[in-house]
Amino acid sequence: MLNVRGLTKKYGDTEVVRGLDLTVRRGECFGLLGPNGAGKTTTLRLLLGLIEPDSGSIELAGIPVPQRAREARMKIGVVPQMDNLDPDFSVRENLLAYGRYFGMSKAAVAARVPGLLEFAGLASKADAPIAQLSGGMKRRLTLARALVHDPDILFLDEPTTGLDPQARHLIWQGLRRLIAEGKTIVLTTHFMDEAERLTDRLAILDHGRIVVEGAPRALIESHIEPAVVEVFGEGVADWTRHHASKVCQRFENVGETLFCYTRNADSVIATLQATPALRYVHRPSNLEDVFLKLTGRDLRD
To answer: Which fold has domain 2-215?
Structure first.
């Protein structure tokens, strides 16, 4: 559904996208992750044909982009990072108007609206103005709107940013349904648990390049020790000096917290129990650990 080779883009002297190669298969949920400034937004704009690359090739749903970008966009649905619903229309009218942008007849759009409202959990809000919707409702409507023309591929740009846990889980439930139905999805997110739950494969982008690509569980198993013990409290610096190198395969000090990565958490915990002033959290390693190891912990602008 998406084939990218040797993609580059410069702004002035800054190379924002640097030789990107990417393949997304039909029916796959693919994640594109990266810190701020890594090149994700520019990559998405290139893939959608909104800006032209300096070099490289893009084929989207079998159509070359940007040469035939308008034709390609007829086959895709987009959920932007910020909601851009029409405030002058009701929930139903937003769906009806959007379908007409894709050349659908009034009858064809009207036939799809009830199912989309049901999918978004908004059947009871069909005639409500946009101003009366919660943030979660607006995101669900934006997702339903992206489906109005039954696209071949969906681009979701941070679809759950700013939502409370209940709203996030409702969005995830809807996305799982789409994945089960065989929709192809390209997802960008800063929530590592979201990527771990939803994606079949993902790529971590940094400084315009893909630093790693693969299935979430495979990346965790290949890049991070299986257990993490986070240690904090008075005396953590002293404990680190005397014990960390002996019981941790790898460790990092971040502020007043020690992250101890290990294959045997029991020995770490046994040592910690001899220092009651310290507190700790023992957990399995996750995708966020991989992300931070590969892209660093420094704050990005």
So the answer is: Rossmann fold (3.40.50)
User: What residue spans define the domains of the chain?
Assistant: 2-215, 225-284
Alpha-carbon distance of 209 to 70, in angstroms, equals: 27
Q: Are 40 and 186 in contact (CB under 8 A)?
A: no
Predicted TM-score of the model (pTM): 0.92
Q: What is the DSSP string of 174-201?
A: HHHHHHHTT-EEEEE-S-HHHHHHH-SE
Helix (H, G, I), strand (E, B) or coil at 228: strand
Beta bridge partners of 284: 227
φ, ψ of residue 232 to 5 degrees: the values are -150, 165
Structure tokens at 162: 């700013």
Asked if 298 and 38 count as a contact pair (C-beta separation under 8 A), the reply is no
| Helix extents (H) in the chain | 40-47, 69-73, 91-101, 106-119, 135-146, 165-180, 192-198, 216-223, 236-239, 245-247, 265-272, 287-295
Encode pLDDT of 238-269 as tens digits: 999 999 999 999 999 998 999 999 999 999 99
